[in-house]
Amino acid sequence: MADGVDIPLRSMKELSNALGEILTEFGEQGAGARTGGLVEAIDHPLGDSRLARAADEFESAWDDKRETLRRDLEEMKKRLDDAGDGWRDADLELARSLEPEK
Fold this sequence. Notes:
This protein is an all-alpha fold and 102 residues long. The chain has helices spanning 9-26, 37-42, 50-98. The model has no long low-confidence stretch (mean pLDDT 87).
């Protein structure tokens, strides 16, 4: 049986950092800024615009999904950060309570 609670704060911080990087990529300066490039690159091969329209529809739908994912990831990161902060604060408080009074 363990003598205490082992909270992987370092792993939680690494995950939070990774989520932050993903959020940056999903943001306005990341993938969100590059969404028009596909349709422009396709243009109208052989005078047919169906592929460009399909790509435009895909990008539009993906923009909506990306925004939903971004909001969900932001919430996940916030909860992870709050949990880590809570455990760190509890650990410090418990450590102070174990110190001899002066």
